[in-house]
Amino acid sequence: MTEKIGVYVCHCGTNIAGTVDVEAVSKWAGEKLAHQGVVVSRDYKFMCSSLGQELIQKDIKEFGLTRVVVGACSPHLHEATFRNACKEGGLNPYLCEMVSVREQVSWVHTDKEAATEKAKALIAGGVARVVHNEALEPLRVPIHADTLVVGGGIAGIQAALEIADAGFHVYLVEREPSIGGHMAQFDKTFPTLDCSACILTPKMVQAGSHPNITLLTWSEVTKVDGYVGNFVVSINKKARYIKTEDCTGCGICWEKCPWKVTDEVFEAGMAKRKAVYVPFPQAVPKYPVIDAVNCAYFLKGTCKACEKFCPTNAIDFEQKDETITVQVGNIILATGYDLFDAKRIPQYGYGRLENVYTNLEFERLCNAAGPTGGSIVLHDGKTAPKTVGIVHCVGSRDQNYNAYCSAICCMQSLKFAHLVHERTGAEVYNFYIDMRTPGKGYEEFYQRLLEEGTHFVRGKVAEVTDFARTPEEEGKLIIQVEDTLIGKQRRIPVDMVVLSAGLQPRHDAKEVGKMFGIACSSDGWYIERHPKLDPVATMTEGVFIAGCVQGPKDIPASVAQGAGAAARVLGKIQQKEIALEPVRASINEAQCSGCRICNGLCPFSAILFHEDKMVSEINPALCQGCGTCVAACPAGAISGTCFSNEQILSQIEGLLLLNLDVKEAAAA
Amino acid sequence: MTAKPKFAMYWAASCGGCEIAVLNIHEKILDVDANFDVVFWPVAVDAKYKDVEAMEDGSILLTLFNGGIRNDENEHLAKLLRRKSQILVAFGSCACEGCIPGLANLSPVGDIVHTAFNTLTTDNPHEIYPRASFDVPEGELHIPRLANVLRPLDLVVDVDYYMPGCPPESHQIAAVVDLVVKVVKGEAELPPKGAVIGVGDSTVCDECPRARNVKSITEFKRIQDVAPVDPNLCLLEQGIPCNGPATRSGCNSRCPNAGTQCIGCYGPAEGVLDYGARLIAAFASVIDAKEPEEIERILDGIPDPVGQVYRFNLAGSLLKASAEAWKAK
After folding, report:
1. pTM here?
2. b/e per residue, A550-585, with b = 16+ CB within 10 A?
């Protein structure tokens, strides 16, 4: 055996040693795998510590190790650490192989004896594999300095501004006609009660006029190719039917437009807009869009009132969708959330009982620019409510709907209670399961509400009904709830009910995630690279997430994540080039018969076909080592570095302890 | 006469096509006779097993062994000829990878016998089945005992060279005969042990003259259901599952030239570990559909997947046999 292999098994404190007899595994590897080249096998409390790493480096020098196997945690966590340790010790980093004894053994088993045996098998697999590892050098590619930010809510705006202010170009893509997101719909923000629009619109204006930001509203990303540093993104600019270069945003078109449509998006169904519209007065950009689905001209072929009255001839009914392609180095996804559909809980009466509102509808009701000019009134549009019930956790913390806490509903409900108090003097009941106020100034806000005289009923609302049992319930909405603090069922008649519907992932989060190559958790939120230490990065290099796409969060947290993601992107841009894993596929020209099965498969378009030689070739600069073509090649002419047949088959043989048996049989 | 090197050829579980292919080299067969002393070749010359047993070990220079190992007689002869031969060639698809007889590895041996002795045309009212030994007035009769599964030659004995094909093409046989004759005369050297000989170094596609494009398949069809078959276009692109892309070259793409799909008799190309797995992956890769139901519908166009992708290769594949057949009592 020509290779000299060092095996290191980590205790990881008790993380591994609690379930695996680490010493026994290390001793076993030293004895039973010696014939395969293992010259030293050690166990150590924390291999990732500097002392653990020095152990490897010392052995590389002392024993002349040519291969290293570390049995510890998942490669995601410490592969870089141990590769670097080997590099420092003078060994090519790719000659180091990690075996996941923690994630694949100790964390998933309880039987110590069986777990120890499994750990041995995994180590044997690693040893058999590492023999076939090749010394490799990372590939260096330049990073494109432009960035794509998807989603123009507060998180996306913040991220775009941070990057643009640093001097780099940003494409900010928004699906709706204006940026602003959910925050633009709110009236006040908790706990300080600043006007949401007052603090948001300056940022929107900044984003709209920033020389380094290309604003693409009414647009959607349709395709993403490439990889970190070099993404090629196709964006569909939906037809606005407005010549933006001529439009001044004067507003005559929507004034003259005779067609009214219920605005389901910005006004949450609470008000009407015209067929040509800007969603709200402070919209950025100022240009309207024509809603072709509801426009009389598109429906019936006549009208064109907007065109007739437009002073700058900016209306263009012939406009078509346009696909543009941009090249960017990094991507930030800040596509936000959808509101939980309160109709899914029929016993709360939403959609059936007048005067039952969702939180977003109530925001519009409170908003000075909203349908009632900010006065909180009942469905009839004039009567102020005398009593209002606010229900927390609608669709959240509920095994039937979403098990998670939506994080913002308690504070939002407190804010609503305050606004009702302030504007109507009505009596307010808040129905909560637990009061969660963990942010800065949040608990103080709760105290303020207690002092204002809001009634707090601890209990999950069973039903909202208009079926009166007593004369005083007549004409009211009755909230049936178990008050768990007094241990009694209560029926509380109110005039208005506000359901604090929870936050949930965008309905198309899964497809969008797939397009950008990132995964969703079982709840549907995008998965961060590390839940604590890397919350804005994803497992896909160069794709970052910010705001509610990652999970429910309030405005300060979304802003912080937007800025955090921007900082990560700026860090990448400043590096100017990036080291890519040298995991690449290559074609053995002699074995390739040019059958062309692989040609259409590469997601990175890295495969070229040479018509003259009738062979295919892989461009290593484009190849990302995904392995699709390797698996598909019927002639076995394509192989992938780090995943060669020898490596995989040897690893399997090692796992099955086949080599061990052969050796022992021979000895016997 | 005795100065000539000795030649043997044997058939185990095979159809006899390989013997005919050897004779089909026409006048070249005279070179065999001129340069070799044919000591054992049941289909062509009269010799008894005991004659072979009596030979000195290693006294035969070249043995072409065709057929897989299905019973204990096959196994005995394989081991015997291995001992007596300097060069043992797994000759033809059966010896290399099991071929058609290897498809029986899907069924337990009892089922095979039962089927054979109870076919539509075979009445077997007394449930008479072959037995390994049988007493008759003249004494005890023995017939070979069937093994659980058919094994390619190299799972039973050490093999020096492989020559695939069902049967190997005559021009390839002639070329190998030429080579061995030259080696005997000291004019050439043998290829390294374990080599696949009498073949090309790529796949059938490499020899196929049909035009090829980027593939995207929305339907797999049996060739008889395609009308008309475009004579100049890649068959796979026409939805006809052609095994050419994974099959070793050497036949000059005979079947595609004749207007029909390659069925894979030359076995896996160099670098292909499991022929069927490769082909399935390749076919699946070029299916143009996203919905699971649509993919199912397209794949249903291949009614017999094992017969399609493991027709020649099942016994030599990673799987080798069905678990039922492997474990049968």
Report:
1. 0.73
2. bbbbbbebbbbbbbbbbbbbbebbeeeebebeebbb
